[in-house]
Write a structure and sequence with these properties.
Elements (H helix, E strand, L loop, with lengths): L2 H24 L5 H11 L15 H14 L6 H22 L3 E2 L2 E2 L1 H4 L2 H20 L8 H28 L7 H25 L5 H28 L2 H4 L5 H4 L5 H9 L2 H11 L6 H13 L2 H21 L9 H12 L3
Antiparallel strand pairs: 1-2
Helix pairs in contact: 1-4, 3-4, 3-8, 3-16, 4-6, 4-7, 4-8, 7-8, 8-9, 9-15, 9-16, 12-15, 15-16
Amino acid sequence: MSNWYYDTFSHMLLDLEEYIKRYCDKRPKVSALLGEMINHHFNWEPGEKTLQLNGKRSRPLMMMLVAQAICGSYQHVYSAAAGIEIIHNFTLIHDDVMDNSLERRHRPALWAKWNISQAINVGDGLFAMGVAAALDAIHHAIPPEKVVRATSALLQASIETVEGQMLDISFETRMDVTPEEYLTMIYHKSGALIQCSAQLGAILSTDDEQTIQAYADFAKNLGIAFQIQDDYLGVWGNEAITGKSATTDIENRKKSYPVLFTLRHANPQQQDLLSQIYQQDSIQGEDIKTVLEVFDEVDAKEATQRLIEQYFNEAIMALDKVNNGQRDHTQLLALAEFLVKREY
């Protein structure tokens, strides 16, 4: 984790990490293996007295920062923040299975260390625990109707995330994916939970519907920019920093933005070459090198960066609608900029 990110947000993130750890520790009642696998996934060592930050925790952090901007505190959204982070990790565990990813954050993925069946079980368990954590917001003096609305929004975002993942997988066997379909997919796959993070922070902190919508719009656009940045790192990222192979997206034939931009702007010869390569069951060796060369020839890297910037600017415009001079968005803006310029 970058020193800037840790130095800026560690006081909030460490408190949240302790909250999530305590919550997860209470849940396994019969199977010790469930607790062991959850600890491994979150990189929590048995008997560890001081937790270390593992992962960005950007979704719950956004929820807390929105709450703080609205009402000056964020402790009342702890349980909902824990819930969205736990559900996000359910998606990561299942993603690793679907993508055949052997590692997660420089450690063996759950399915690789144990087996696929138990990894799926842990993911399912985390989903249920995440929903239960969100419902615990009622113990933070939040009206029941707000807790129900927030939990309903979290469940809807979870459904949209699954839909986005299904679209993403289906795109692997198609060569006619359009940029419009791609944007629909990435909003659902990544943007939905990010939007939900800001939305829940607002729902649990204000009754003003325009304020709730403005923060949701901010995070929706930021979530799209975040996923495009993820696609960028999936092609041009530093493996030593990301913890994942920089060629995994190409190997798995994912129709990320660099691929779609290249297919639209390549000449007929380049298009035929890419079509032949992407019709294979997997892409390996020299074919990966060829794909990267065609990306360079059509300036796909620069085009991807421009699209990230476009959605980032739209996010800032949405946030400006609630920037009435009384709310401090300094840290929220810093987080937004980090998410679209991160290297991991």
